[in-house]
Each structure stands twice: as C-alpha cells, then as structure tokens.
Design brief:
This protein has helices spanning 22-31, 59-65, 76-89, 100-111, 125-133, 161-171, 195-208, 219-229, 238-247, 273-286, 297-309, 313-331, 350-353, 363-375, 384-387, 407-422, 453-456, and strands at 46-47, 93-97, 117-120, 137-140, 179-182, 212-215, 251-255, 266-270, 345-349, 377-378, 380-382, 395-399, 430-434, 445-448. By secondary structure, the chain is α/β, with parallel strands linked by helices. The chain has a five-stranded mixed beta sheet, with helices on both faces. A three-stranded antiparallel beta sheet has the order 9-12-11. The chain is globular, with a radius of gyration of 22 Å. The chain binds pyridoxal-5'-phosphate.
C-alpha cells in the first residue's frame, strides 16, 4: 500500500494564485501595518487564515445548486436540506440560519436568561459572546490535558465531567438551561471529544434533567477521530459514529461553513416542539421564513449534499492525514506545536518558537508576519493581540481550507515554516500603533520594535 497522501478528487476548475517577491511582500506587509487581516487576499499565496467558508465545492454540490428552488415558503430545497440533515443528526426540527452564530443567537435567546450558566468544553468566541449577550455566564470545562499544548492525548477536547457535576451542584440545576459540547474543540486546538465522554456528559445531563446541545461545526472530523482513536469504533462508518453521537443530544447549532462543505450557511436543531416554535418566531424576525432562514434555496442544496460528503471516508482519511502531515513534519524538526495536530488546523506555539520575544511584543503576530514575508502564507495569531492580557498562550493557527490546497502546497508550507525556524533568532517583536476598543485584532496596526543590540550577534 503506497504511503503518499493523495487528494481523493480530480480538479475541474482552477483558480490562479499569485506569486509576489520578498521585496513586494515587505512593502505589502508594511502597508497592512503588519496585520495580516489588512492584506488584500490577492497578495496571499497560500491562505490559511481560516477553514470557515473557504472550502471548494464538489461537482455534485454545483449540480445541486442548479436545482435550487427559490420559493419563499415550502421550497423543495428545504425538504432536501432537512431530510439530509435529519438522516445524520436525527433531530425533529431543522431550522436554517445564515451561519453558525445566528443559530447560537437564537438558541441562547430562547433558552437562557440573566444569571444562567452555560457549561461547554470550550466556547468558541461567537458562542461565548452570544451567551454573554443575554446576561448568562459561559464556563469552559475542558479536561486539564486540553490546556497543555505539548501534551499528547487522543481526546484533548473532552469535558471534565467531575467539574461539570460540581458546577451544576454549586449553581443549582435551575440556573443551567443547557450543556454544550463543541466538536471538535476549535478554541482548544481543534481537538476531538470521545464517544465515552459524550456518554458521560449525557449521563450527568440526564441526572439533572438538563438538555445537551452540540456545537457541531466539525462533527465529521470528530467522528473520524473517534474511528481512529477510540476502541470499538474501528469498523463503524463516520456516519454511524456521527449518528450515535448526536443520538445523545437534544439538539445542536451548526456552521455549515465547516463540515457543511459550503461557503455560507448554518442551522439550529432541536427535539423540543415548544422551543422550536419560539426559535422559528425569532428566526422570522431577523433571518427569514423557516424554510430558508437567511439562505438562498441553492445554498440549502449545497449544504444538503455537503454534510453527506463531509462524512465520506476517503475524504476524511485524506483530510486528517494531510493536517497531521503538516504538523508532524514541522514538529520533527523541533518546531513547537499544539500536540497532536488538530482536524482542521495546526497551531504553532509562538512563545516557545520565539522565546526571546516578550509576550507584550506579540510573538504570535511576529511569527505570522514572518511566515508571510518568507513565503506569502497567511495564518492567524490567537494570543495576546486577540485576547489581551487574558491570553494563556500565543499561538499561530494554520487552518486548512477543505479540498482547496494540494499536498504540494502543504509541502511548500512545511518548507517555509522550517526556513523561518532556522532564522528565528533574528525575528523582532512588535508594538501596537493603533487599537480599536474591542475585537482589536481585526484592525490593529503594528510595527516591529527596534532590535536590542544583544540579539544582533545571534
Ligand atoms: C466551534 C465554532 N462554533 C461556532 C462558530 C461560528 O460559526 P460562523 O462563523 O458560521 O458564525 C465557529 C466558526 O468559526 C466555530 O469554529
């Protein structure tokens, strides 16, 4: 059996990417104030900013798009969307939304009130913001292993069930309207949750009669990790694993921009008839009628096909192997990464990569800027610029868009990272020259600090 990772698809339509010279990139970076969000995408060679909405659609998705029924109410496309989702997720009500955060906003508006507490393994930023917006408190209860970047553990996304039990007893079950599990755990390094952990969380939820919801964005990648790493699931299909996982829940929120394999879209599911009615009422107010919910009929078609394609085993084998290939090849040369590599991304530990740069000089921003200068790669800092003093780590995330880049692109990324690794002692820290009052990372302006004389000799 050959070991070369090959893409399980042929390419039918190509989109050119543009080379720039190092000199041009120096000028472009300066013009973007060393903030990669401010770069025009055309000046990026390999864009690993996010895996959200950046994937390539298949011939079957494009064919389905042509079948889109744009009727305002009762469209055929909604039926296909609901049927496809119900086959995998199994929930009674399927409510389309324009993306994941819209599903979150509606869910928390209907289920939570001021003073409530929502436990999650780790809330994604929009999830946390939507919980807090209704006056509730978002609590992250990931296991201790999930907080140690270099530690290898098969399911670092697991929830600490003892901590969950403690929390519910502490605040009282009436203040916990739901428990959430994020699969995979994006903010915790794209790490999966095991089926055993899902069952243990469900047992606690049943004991206190609290509904369990999934943040299901990367459900297919999580299912494949269970197949690879959890005894008893080796011969099950990813779809069977996903179906079993969702059977322990009462509903979910979903961004179809990830494992929905679409460029836009999301949905909210629930088994509760009363909640569904309230959710649909709210949906009509801001998203649209319940059979399209802020999406075009053609988007519903793309998602109906996409959620099924995300579970194809050939695709998942390649997807997970390709991300691991990138992580393992740089780690083998000493580059510090969050271990093991996640499903959708590799996270470099910038504090360990650039120990000579103090945290208040944004080692993550400095490293991301250098990866762009060296090879035109765009990544994203998840650290002190994004979270301020609350940042526990300074990471640089390389998120891999689905079905977009080939193995030779990945080899190129490895080469560029290793080149930067060799020159790491010459990289300078950054200082802020402008910051917005909130979500500053999107618009911040920075410049390199003067290099201390001591570092010039290294
Ligand atoms: C775990 C998780 N939940 C929710 C969201 C929000 O989804 P969207 O960007 O579609 O609003 C994201 C997006 O990155 C995510 O990664």
């Amino acid at each position: 059996m050959a070991h070369t990772i090959i893409e399980p698809f042929r390419i039918k339509s190509v989109e050119p990417i543009r080379w720039t010279t190092r000199r041009e990139r120096e000028q472009l970076l300066q013009a973007a104030y060393y903030n990669l969000f401010l770069l025009p995408a055309d000046d990026v060679l390999i864009d690993l900013l996010t895996d959200s909405g950046t994937g390539a659609m298949s011939t079957n998705q494009w064919a389905a798009i042509m079948q889109g029924d744009e009727s305002y109410a009762g469209s055929r496309s909604y039926d296909r969307f609901r049927n496809s989702i119900q086959e995998i997720f199994g929930y009674r009500h399927v409510i389309p939304t324009h993306q994941g955060r819209a599903a979150e906003r509606i869910l928390f508006n209907v289920m939570c009130k001021k003073g409530d507490v929502v436990p999650n393994n780790t809330h994604f930023d929009t999830t946390r913001a939507n919980v807090e917006y209704v006056g509730a408190e978002a609590r992250d209860l990931v296991i201790a292993e999930g907080k140690q970047p270099g530690l290898v553990h098969p399911f670092k996304g697991n929830m600490d069930v003892a901590a969950l039990d403690r929390l519910i007893r502490e605040v009282g079950r009436e203040r916990v309207p739901l428990v959430m599990l994020t699969v995979t755990n994006n903010s915790g390094g794209g790490q999966p949750v095991s089926m055993e952990n899902v069952k243990a969380v469900k047992t606690i939820c049943q004991r206190y009669r609290i509904p369990l919801y999934f943040d299901a964005c990367r459900f297919a990648e999580n299912a494949y990790f269970i197949k690879l790493r959890e005894p008893g699931y080796e011969s099950k299909t990813p779809k069977q694993i996903a179906q079993q996982m969702f059977s322990y829940g009462d509903g979910c929120t979903m961004s179809a921009k990830k494992d929905g394999m679409a460029n836009i879209g999301g949905f909210l599911c629930t088994n509760d008839d009363l909640l569904a009615q309230q959710e649909k009422d709210l949906l009509i107010l801001t998203e649209g009628y319940p059979t399209y919910g802020g999406l075009a009929g053609r988007d519903l078609e793309a998602i109906a096909v996409g959620v099924q394609e995300a579970l194809e085993e050939d695709y998942l084998r390649y997807r997970i192997a390709s991300t691991a290939y990138l992580g393992d090849h740089v780690a083998a040369q000493g580059v510090p990464i969050v271990q093991p590599p996640g499903g959708h991304a590799v996270y470099i530990d910038a504090r360990a990569f650039l120990p000579h740069i103090p945290i208040d000089q944004f080692p993550g921003v400095a490293l991301a800027a250098e990866l762009y200068l060296e090879g035109g790669i765009r990544s994203v800092e998840i650290g002190s610029l994004m979270f301020g003093a609350a940042a526990k780590m300074d990471l640089v995330r390389l998120a891999i868009p689905r079905r977009v880049y080939t193995q030779s692109h990945i080899d190129y990324v490895v080469e560029v990272i290793l080149e930067v690794w060799k020159k790491r002692s010459r990289i300078r820290g950054m200082k802020l020259t402008y910051e917005a009052p909130f979500l500053r990372h999107f618009t911040a302006r920075l410049e390199p600090v003067e290099q201390p004389a001591a570092q010039l000799v290294t």
